[in-house]
Amino acid sequence: MLTGLKAIIEHDFRTFFKYRFFTAGLISMNLADLLIMAVVYTQMVSFDYFKFVAPGIVAVGLFAAAFVIGREVNNETRRGYNQYLLSLPVRRFELIIGRMIAGGLRGLIYAIPLLVLAMWILTFPSILQLGLIIFAMFLLGMGISGLAISLAVILRSFERFTTARSLIYLLLIFCSTVFYPITVLQQLFGGALVVFAEANPLSAISNLLRGYLMGTPPVTLFSWTELLVFSAVFILAGAGFYALAIERSV
User: Which residue segment(s) compose the domain that 201 sits in?
Assistant: First the structure.
């Protein structure tokens, strides 16, 4: 089983690093958010926005890199590439789980340099805390991959998938605590938007990173529970929908 999983993960990593210009664009966007926007905003608000947003940029990078697998699965589903994957000497279980693990690892590996930069700006956590941070990021990466795969399989049309992806980006990134504290949303909007932001998994990972790297907000059981529930739901959903897509291609 490990040989099959390794082959699938290696295949997905090679595919991911073929998108050199796309990856360069993501890196440029993340660094611009941190080194330009955050520096400017720090001069405009009453707190150190540069330090506040650094963990949020890690969350955005993780999210964007892990979501890329949805585009790949969508292309494979539309073009019948699943039949080639089924011809490989791996079992369907290995294929499905391998894709999920690869998505989580790709997001984690992409986000680790951003995490190192955030630690350099803020503080270096203990070994235990660093282990918990990496575990949380990998877990969320797998959940995001599951979400992306679910959308890719349900919305087989590339146009529909792209539209849904843009909507998900808008909701999860900007209706969260990635770029601003929850108190700002409470003051400006309130109601359902604040509830959504508090339940948003990107808020959970951003708050966890800030808790471990800044000490505020404190790390809570709610953030960990939210992260575990989101990841479990979409890992199972992604695996289920991907299994159905493979079955239809036989």
Answer: 2-249
Is the confidence at residue 224, as pLDDT, over 70? yes
Q: What is the pLDDT of residues 34-64, one digit of tens each?
A: 677 666 666 666 677 888 888 999 999 999 8
- CB distance 84 to 95 below 8 Å: no
Question: Most confidently modeled of 19-28, 141-150, 193-202?
Answer: 141-150
Q: How many CB atoms lie within 10 A of CB 23?
A: 16
Predicted local distance difference test score (pLDDT) of residue 22: 67
C-beta atoms surrounding 163 within 10 Å = 12
DSSP assignment string, 41-60: HHTTSSS-HHHHHHHHHHHH
Domain total of the chain: 1
- Residue 152's identity, in one-letter code, is A
CA distances from 85 to 6, 67, 90, 146, 249 (A): 14, 20, 9, 18, 10
What mean pLDDT is reported for the chain? 84
pTM of the model: 0.87
CA neighbor of 140 nearest in space, from 25, 246, 235: 235
- Which of helix, strand or coil describes residue 197? helix
Q: With contact defined as beta carbons under 8 Å apart, do 145 and 101 qualify? A: no
Q: Cβ(197)–Cβ(175) under 8 Å?
A: yes
Please name which of 175, 150, 174, 139 lies closest in space to residue 243, comparing C-alpha atoms: 150
Residue 177 DSSP label: S
